[in-house]
Amino acid sequence: MPSPWDRIRDEFPILNQQVNGRPLVYLDNAATTQKPRTVIAALDRFYAQDNANVHRGLHALSMRSTNHYEGARARVAAFINAEAPEEVIFTRGTTESINLVASSWGGANLRKGDVILLTEMEHHSNLVPWQVVAQRTGATLRYLPVTGDEGLLDLSALDRMLTPEVKVFAFTHVSNTLGTINPVAELCARARKVGAVTVIDAAQSIGHMPIDVRAIGCDFLAFSGHKMASVTGIGALYGRRALLDAMPPYQVGGGMISRVDFFESLWKPSPERFEAGTPNFADAVALGASCDFLDSLGRQRIREHDGRLARAAYERLAQLPGIRLIGPAGERGGLVSFAFKSVHAHDVVTFADEDGIALRGGHHCNQPLMKRLGLTSTVRASFYVYNEEREIDALVASMQRTLAFFGLEA
Ligand code: C6P
Fold this sequence. Notes:
Layout: E1 18-19, E2 22-23, E3 25-26, H1 37-50, H2 60-79, E4 88-91, H3 94-109, E5 115-119, H4 128-137, E6 140-144, H5 158-161, E7 166-172, H6 184-193, E8 197-201, H7 213-216, E9 220-224, E10 235-239, H8 241-245, E11 257-260, E12 265-267, H9 281-297, H10 299-317, E13 323-326, E14 335-340, H11 345-354, E15 357-358, E16 360-362, H12 367-373, E17 378-382, H13 389-405
Parallel strand pairs: 3-15, 5-6, 5-7, 7-8, 8-9
Antiparallel strand pairs: 1-2, 4-10, 9-10, 11-12, 13-14, 14-17, 16-17
This protein binds ligand C6P.
């Protein structure tokens, strides 16, 4: 039987184009992944056949649409092995999911004297919402250090930092700048010992590896559809049922109430409590389709593929003069991040674009981490299911051309 891997690039129509007269080499997958035909078709089919508002109508289209929307919720719940679909709340993505937890759970449960534990490698989306809730409640922020250029969490500091005052421990699964894969199950187990609630930012892991929230033992997990071969504007928050049911709403309005009077209202349970207004049901259907697509490839196989490319790129790039690679030299997620001593990241990315290669250069929404490493920016190449070894050749050749232009060749 043919494997979907055999013709993987044909599944992604966008890849078949030239950029600046060269075949496109798309290595900006950590920013957003491309979309396969099956996901585009699922969205098209939904709008062409089933579109109607959900949870409101008694007519056929509305009931069909509601079934698709709730089916997508069940599909996402199964994808992460949640106990029940009600533990999945649809949001706009990782950022909104974390804002929901910080504002709703944090606002209701944190007070002066409590500690919010984060890590130095957090994306702004898992940092700023906690700063704001700390200011609102009087709680204190604490950061688990990163070891240096190898970019690991300093687990030896955890015992000292994970005190009973820590009420919540929020950390990323895979760093979008370092490529580090954090030992999330171990972090959750250690947090549980002091009674801290755990929040995992899975933006960079959800599309790249198997994720089982029950095996990991987390309380919350946030992710975005557009980083897992799905469309923009949809993502999810997983939360343990008991915690969700005890949380106040994040936004209020239609759809999330059980009764409204002129002066007070009652809320529905999760997930409706956290989905005020008309939800993004069409894109949720596309998210369900991307779960099917990723499972057809096999998520363990995706992890091996992306990790292998990232390690190969790391080893090839390490031979270039004046390069500083950050993140672990061994096992890593599907990205590499580096800086040249004498060429700014934006110049590197601009030269690469001339060669048809899409990279990202900048601070990657990781300003505190950059400061910690004494950097202002890096170049990042990030891989996904359709990338091939020959694209690493193109990447390295482009870097050599850039270095030669600046008179820095070996
Ligand atoms: N990182 C990158 O190029 P949103 O924007 O809500 O879909 O995801 C935010 C986010 C949260 N956590 C991590 C670890 C992330 O990498 C991201 C998004 C993109 O690295 C855009 S800055």
